[in-house]
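INPUT
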Amino acid sequence: MEFAGPVRPLPGGITPPEEKALSSGSPIRPGPLPAALVLPLVQHLGAPAEPCVAPGDRVLGGQVLARPDGPVSAAVHAPTSGRVVAVEPRPVPHPSGLTAPCVVLEVDGDDRFLDPSPLAGWRDAPPEVLLEAIAAAGVAGLGGAGFPTAVKAAAGGARRVDTLVLDAAECEPYITADDRLLRERAGEVLAGAAVLARLLRPERILIGIEDNKPEAIEALRAAADDVDPGAPLTCVVVPTRYPSGGERQLVELLTGREVPAGGLPADVGVLCQNVATAAAVHRAVARGEPLVSRITTVTGRAVARPGNVEVRLGTAFADLLADAGLDASALDRLLMGGPMMGFTIEDPSVPVVKTTNCLLAATAAELPPAPPARPCIRCGFCAEVCPASLLPQQLYWHARSREFDAARELGLADCIECGACAWVCPSTIPLVQYYRFAKGELREAEREREKAEHARERFEARQARQAREAAERAERRRARRTGKRAPGGEADPESSATAASATGASATPSSATAAAAPEAPATDARERRAAAVEAAVARARARRERDRSAEAATLYGAAEDGELARLGAELADARRRREALRADGGDPNVGEPNLGDPNLGDPNVGDPDLLAALDAEIAELEAALARVRSRLGGGAQP
Amino acid sequence: MSLRSASSPHGRGAPDTSAVMGLVIVATTPGLAMLVLQFGWGPLLNVALAAAAAVAAEAALLVLRRRPLALHLGDRSALLTGVLLGLSLPPFLPWWMTMVGAGFAIVLGKQLYGGLGQNPFNPAMVGYVVLLVSFPVAMTSWAAPRGLAPDGAASLLESARAVLAPGSVALDGWTGATPLDSFKYRGALTAEEWREATGLGGLLGGRGWEWVNLAFLAGGVWMIRRGLFGWHAPGAMLATLAVLALLFQDGGSSEGLGSPLFHLCSGATMFGAFFIVTDPVSGATSPRGRIVFGIGVGVLLFVIRAWGTYPDAVAFAVLLMNLAVPTIDRYTRPRVYGHGSPRRGGAPS
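OUTPUT
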């Protein structure tokens, strides 16, 4: 294995206290075997898996509980043996605390597994077979958004990928799951890289790792002597600087290439996988083991035994925390993920999912509540640390003034929400929250635009249909007049052409069937109408499908915070403001002059009107949340 | 179990506004000490008066605007404005002028625009210019540096009487032309002849003033090392000033406009570079924009010093460049990741 680096650090970035020593010292330990496991059917961006078990079924460990349904979907397996007791909506880890359909497994304690079916001779297996094995094992990205690995690899294989990047940077404070994985199982990671290399046939493999993990680097060096990764392998040591481990940032650090705005790393010939994902790929292919557990860092000063746990998916956070010796009285803030990008969990009964890389049980002293925001002084610290070279402060002014288009112009969409700007802000302005707010508003506006477009299409289709029907009526009249002497005569070519062009005017691809029908000679009006109805039904079905997948993408979006996330965040913010207003008469936003943003409080401290308005706002938000949740719950049981 | 709900990031890692302002105030102390050493107690009285007036004006306006007093006074920005204004005023300035200047700085220069963060102009410089155009005589009678005043340095009591009871003491014995002034109106003398004739040349740039400038430079370097601001704006301003001075030095002849060292170590150069040009609120945003801003200040500073009628020009140069900030910001936006050509081209070896 080659070594490269240290490379020039990213523009921007910050060096927050690492806090990794809390959990990095002890070996990975097995997680608890709880009495019940709750397995969400969707744990990533994309469509939920289709359950293939029913309540009452007995299952063995490794057995499929739900199969992928749709192009972006991943299978879910039983992490141990037991009995399915329910398939129902349960709270899942999500910023808004939403519920989602889950398979609930009552654990029998025997922990019996299906015999694994390794893919013998995978080194010579064709790509489709490998992809199939990875998909069947339900492997999804373990580092971030949990994107199904087989889908990502297939998309990468379809393009020209010359560089496979393994992300071992793990730049978030506190998290040491990848560090420990590399220290203890570097061979598995490299073997997984070999599978991915077999799939993608890259010219080189680059492992990006921060220079604060010397033991992991040493383990990689040792493992590289035993495992052939299938392509020239280089370990690039990057400076310890948050957010070096962001996909786009790491690609730039390692290859000098920038992922184009709105594009994917594959656009510049790179495919990026987390090292834990690579290890899971190896297990799936070479050992035939589905993804039923992951290494999660359980840390924070509210647990007595911080460390890394190989935890079964579906284990409740509460069980995992109890296993680590949680001091519930000291716990103030529970995060899934790290302190920079993780989100708070209010209900510890939610299960560990494929993307749960860290549980951070922090005390109030450890992560103190944010002090009230002061006015922006344009110091520009935020611009200095922004890894995307944005002007966070300008984005903030625009977001606050509801000039969302101006914010988009300045590259709002290129913000990766890493939080470096808010970290250094001397005025303690919750900048990332403003960006999420602005992104949500822009998405909402886009949805409105699409809806309007849709209504226009429908209107035009209706007009076209009426024109067609009028033409048909005219033709029938003519047929009645002339048809007595020429039974079975051909349709008037002119009226047929009119109908065809009228149908074509609706200009939707799905109306092609309707447009094709009248072109056929000797088709009578009834048949044409039947075809039109069929086409309309097909269109409606397609639309429903589209809406449903869009909704699913929104609701489950880990990278995208959809309506629920936005509502949840707004609700939390409103509650926080009310608390502040009641508690000490200090509104967290008092430093901010109210520039027409109804989400920002006016500094009329303790004002009963303001309190009442906040109460109303909170009630409204709660109702909206409940609506969206019930919509989701209803959708789960068709 | 009631768990906190919050939005990421869940921590912070930089000094807050009030700490930043506090550090800047601390960084002025070497300069203030040197001013006192060279020019007597006047500057200290000015700073105290201006700071008190600025904080009082800020408090009054916050009350009128119904803003929480503790939160906003706690940011120490008004205190800093007062200190900066006080540092730029001549010793022996009557107390009420100082207070008027501080009041203007806070009320018209800052609060009427919406308070901290909203003001397009540097408040301290607004206050300074208001005083300069209103009371040109008082504002241009500087104390003579240590060792050059005919009557020796003024004692604390004498300084206090001059400031608090204007007219009760004659100032002539303590005041004198500043090196910038004297050099400008030196007639047909060469630079060297001027030095010998007036004794105002000092070692580097101006008797007394050179030490004051070095002290402010020290404070500024400390702030850069503490990460309070980048080198971009002050560096660009000082470099521009030095280059222009070099171009127009004319070998120190009677036509020359002063050496680079003279310009760097005279008047309010270093104070302006590190304490005024670096004001984030009224300055440019991006590092590139700050370089442009600094260059602009340097050019205007030299032009007004060389060909204008005012003795020094930091305030005018800064206020004029404040006007240009929105334009500068617009044309110096950094290239966003993923747009245009990559910043690191090529793959690593």
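end of record. Chain A touches chain B through 88 residues (CB under 8 Å).
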